[in-house]
Amino acid sequence: MATPKITPQNMAAEVCKRLKELSDPVRAEGAQRYFRETVLFLGVSTPEMRNLAQEVYQKIRPEWGVDEATEFCAIMLKNPYHEVRGLGIITFERYRKDFPVSAFATIKGWLLADYCNSWALVDVLCPTSVGALLEKYPDLVKAIKGWTKSPNRWVRRASIVSFLKLAKKIQYLDAIYNIVRSHFADSDDLIQKASGWLLREAGKTDPARLEKFLRQNGPAIPRTTLRYAIERFPEPKRKSLLLATKKP
User: Fold this and answer.
1) Which one of 72, 119, 230, 236 has the lowest number of neighbouring Cβ atoms within 10 Å?
2) Which tens digit of pLDDT belongs to each residue from 199-215?
3) In sequence order, what DSSP letters do the residues of 45-94 get, joined into one string?
């Protein structure tokens, strides 16, 4: 008799059961302190998550393609617990080389539905998965600019952090600086911090361009963004930039 095919539904049920067995209420309570919004945790450690994710992938690799991985992730994201959602995302991103262009709209739909309801989940999903899409389908670099105007804070954060890995490549710097400029007026501290983080990464690729950008736009840049952006500069340069970009 042939071994039954592993379906996304069956695998999701198995993984949820395993994660609940690994749960630790004390660790779950401790994890919440890193978030202002309420996030539900099971309290599974990072090494345990990593081991289980690898185990899942070894099981599904012979049978699944990107369609099954997408369905599995969609099921996992509907679960309220952070670790369940995270494991769905980690599995999904294993198939990023095969993502169709439609995955861009799929991911935006997940964000709009608040399935990634914390900065941590957005930051797991977007640099790897959306970043891969931006690189594979160059037209999406223009399309993601529209995310900067979304009323949903997770979509707006995604528009920024999706470029984190691409910031190492000089051909994406124009898009990165345009994205950050679009967020200058955003008062959400999670957006301001993400913008500063992305600028800092862009500065690793071209420090002179970052300094020029900061000096040209300084008074318009939220101070939180600015402080994150200048972290890698030497202290005298940091002080100089803080002074030069101060609002009159």
Assistant:
1) 236
2) 999 999 999 999 999 99
3) -HHHHHHHHHHHHHHHTTT--HHHHHHHHHHHHTSSBHHHHHHHHHHHHT
